[in-house]
Amino acid sequence: MVCTLIAGGLLLLSFIKLSNAIEVNRKANIYFGIFVFLWSTFWLDDMIFPGLLDQNNYFFVGVRFIQFLVPVTFFVSVLFYINPYFKYSFKDFRFLIVPFLFLILLFCKPLLKASLFNILYIVIVLAHSLFYTVSAYLKIQKHQKDIELFSSNTEFIDLKWIKYIIYSFITSSVLIIIYSAFTTGDGLNLYINLFFLVVVYLVTFYSIRQKEIYPGGLDIERTIEPLDNSENNNDTPKNKLLSDDELDKLKAELIQLMDHEKPYLDSELNLVKLAEKLQLSSHQLSYVINNGFNENFFHFINKYRVQKAEELLTNPKWDHLNILAIGFESGFNSKTSFNTTFKKMTSYTPTEYRKKRSNL
Fold it and tell me: Which domains does the chain have, with CATH numbers?
């Protein structure tokens, strides 16, 4: 019953992603749909063809090879989520080397001793899974920093839900090791399946809620990649996009815009929207904020929002508003982002800040 719920949930999610029903992040969703479908085979094989894996070597090779590709397809889907313009190059063929070697090992199973085959099988599968799991995690970590260059609210585009998959892989591995070390292993599958049942439906919920990550009109490569290069090579000077006089002039215009029009009160404000108000390209505005204020876009905008929230929290006129309403009035789009950002910039939560003011 539990296996049926897991497999059914994965197949449904796969269909939603492959059909692009959500109509966002198209390429990433297609690869994620392939990953989810392949992931479902871990529960489908015994449900549909019980015992056939041990009886038919060709069926064994086919199923195990498909399952071996799960970490690869997961990693590729992450690549397209964090960069919708990602293109394969010749060097990417190196990712096929280990799967090819694994395929050879599977065909050689009848020729090898069972003990030797099992050792090689476990080592290759674990090393392969660990490599792509860690690589995907590092990509997501970098993505969560990069999106602060163009978005003022990152909560719904930070791909945090993908980490749930990574954590589930790691947690299940640890549980298996610990459980096997201290018990006979009876009933382990039930506990693991119950664990994955929760994970699968959490991933389904959050992945369906995933918004389009990059706003239309954003020059992704020029906005994000130059920062990557400067981080990786501190000896290479940044290209000067604007002269010092032009930079000072645009800084003054930006400050005037922020003070008078208060665009930061728009919870959906991004780099492209703000650049249009100044009649600049997103790349130019990013340069002005990064080099003129030594801040990224996220910090620059939320600094104004926090200042606005401080005004509302210290003004008795707004005492009738609760904390969530104060957050919305200041340009935040959720209580979580309001609390997190406010505390990061002031060392207090909004509630603590209001209490501190009332005690003065």
Answer: 2-209 (no CATH), 220-358 (1.10.10.60)
